[in-house]
Amino acid sequence: MPNGHVIRGARVGSAPPRLPERHQPVPCRSVSYWCRNGHRTDIRIVADVTAPTVWDCPRCGLPAGPDAQDPPGRTRAEPYKTHLAYVKERRTDAEGEAILAEALAALRNRRGGG
Ligand SMILES: [Zn+2]
């Protein structure tokens, strides 16, 4: 009964694979980044290269920074603004009153009042 074991390509006495002797491993260090969602990302960079200050979190895409207590993005996050807040940035109160009066007048005219 054939056992089916066929060994190919390995000869007894064949030379083991050798790395080129002049190859030196590049010294690396690992840097950790944290995003606002608490995801930790470890990257390895070449030791004499300055680590980037921001690294995109591979899990959620938010920017991640090397300080776990102060991840980037938090301070840049704009507080939620209502539509009215945006309108008030563009128009003064007087302009708002005029627009409101105009709109009310038009509304009354449409209703056939007056
Ligand atoms: Zn994340």
Automatic annotation (TrEMBL):
Cofactor note: Bind 1 Zn(2+) per subunit.
Keywords for the protein's UniProt record, in alphabetical order: Metal-binding, Transcription, Transcription regulation, Zinc
Cofactor or coenzyme needed: Zn(2+)
Residues noted as binding Zn(2+) in the record, renumbered to the chain: 35, 39, 57, 60
InterPro entries, sorted: RbpA_sf, RNApol-bd_RbpA
HAMAP family named in the record: RbpA
Family: Belongs to the RNA polymerase-binding protein RbpA family.
Assembly notes: Forms a complex with the RNAP catalytic core and with free principal sigma factors.
Function: Binds to RNA polymerase (RNAP), stimulating transcription from principal, but not alternative sigma factor promoters.
Record's protein name: RNA polymerase-binding protein RbpA
Origin species: Micromonospora lutea
